[in-house]
């Protein structure tokens, strides 16, 4: 039996919290996107944005169906992705299904483990007077969001919230498309006259999903991410949810920050990825 996560809000099992996180990920990739299938897998690609890391991904749900010829299946996947102009081949696999390591390795894929974390709903003391959390809705909001990402990219080796490199204008247009399709609700954290962080919310039946948290380099390691997470936990409390779920890469700075903010592991998923911008294998 799965462990039970308890708090003053409704009860939720570890397994259910993890499953809702994975389902929210699939909803996110489905928003404003098209779907295609290969044996055992669903592919989600966003027309016009398939070159972005989040613009084209595959979820391998039934690896047993490709067990006999996994190398050929990966080759078919890459051929289809290349036709769509995808820069990356990204395949999500549940750990218990990770029987295809040798095939992915043969194709020079890299593997990273993503933890699914959970924090129970909790009260939030509130922002100081100079901080305002504001929903991103108007053209002016999105313009401020673009300026924010342009400033983020001015720092050395800046990457997106998913760990991949990106271009500000393309990313913001992509996020706006996801938002307007109802896949998520984006917010900006303002300090006086500048945006210093952004985060998106996805609503599940029992949990809220924290998505795409980005903090300005000038404000990192100052507790802003922890406060944003605490704010989101209070949103969960106000909506009668059990708590908040989030994905984070194993061993990353963000993983340590989430642990320090009161999150604990409730599941995991593996991502196999390869850059398709070079020569074909």
Task: Give a written overview of the molecule.
It is built from 7 helices and 13 strands. The protein is α+β, with helices and mostly antiparallel strands and 281 residues long. An 11-stranded mixed β-sheet has the order 3-4-5-6-13-7-12-11-10-9-8, sandwiched between helices. Helix 4 runs antiparallel to helix 5. It is globular and about 60 Å long. The termini are far apart.
By DSSP, the count of extended strands is 13
Number of helices: 7
SSE run:
EEHEEEHEHEEHHEEEHEHE
N-end to C-end Cα span = 44 Å
What coarse outline follows from CA principal-axis ratios? globular
Biggest sheet architecture: 11 strands, mixed
The helix/strand class is: alpha+beta
What is this structure's SSE topology?
Layout: E1 4-5, E2 12-13, H1 14-30, E3 34-38, E4 41-45, E5 56-60, H2 70-83, E6 88-93, H3 101-106, E7 110-120, E8 131-135, H4 139-152, H5 168-180, E9 185-191, E10 194-203, E11 207-215, H6 224-238, E12 243-249, H7 253-260, E13 264-275
Parallel strand pairs: 5-6, 11-12
Antiparallel strand pairs: 1-2, 3-4, 4-5, 6-13, 7-12, 7-13, 8-9, 9-10, 10-11
Helix pairs in contact: 4-5
């Amino acid at each position: 039996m799965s462990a039970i996560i308890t708090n003053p809000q409704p009860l939720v099992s570890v397994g259910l919290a993890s499953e809702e996180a994975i389902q929210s990920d699939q909803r996110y990739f489905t928003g404003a996107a098209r779907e295609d299938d290969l044996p055992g897998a669903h592919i989600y690609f966003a027309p016009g944005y398939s070159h972005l890391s989040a613009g084209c991904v595959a979820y391998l749900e039934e690896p047993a169906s490709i067990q006999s010829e996994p190398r050929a299946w990966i080759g078919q996947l890459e051929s289809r992705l290349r036709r769509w102009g995808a820069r990356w081949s990204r395949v999500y696999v549940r750990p218990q299904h990770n029987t295809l390591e040798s095939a992915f390795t043969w194709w020079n894929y890299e593997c990273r483990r993503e933890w699914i974390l959970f924090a129970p709903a909790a009260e939030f003391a509130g922002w100081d007077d100079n901080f305002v959390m504001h929903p991103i809705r108007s053209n002016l909001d999105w313009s401020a969001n673009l300026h924010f990402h342009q400033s983020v990219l001015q720092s050395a080796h800046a990457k997106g919230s998913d760990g991949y490199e990106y271009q500000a204008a393309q990313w913001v247009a992509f996020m706006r498309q996801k938002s307007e399709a109802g896949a998520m609700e984006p917010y900006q954290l303002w300090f006086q006259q500048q945006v210093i962080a952004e985060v998106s919310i996805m609503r599940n039946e029992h949990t809220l999903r924290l998505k795409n948290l980005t903090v300005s380099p000038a404000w990192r390691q100052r507790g802003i991410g922890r406060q944003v997470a605490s704010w989101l936990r209070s949103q969960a409390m106000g909506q009668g949810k059990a708590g908040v779920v989030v994905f984070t890469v194993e061993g990353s700075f963000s993983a340590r920050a989430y642990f320090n903010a009161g999150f604990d592991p409730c599941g995991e998923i593996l991502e196999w990825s390869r850059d398709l911008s070079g020569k074909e294998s």
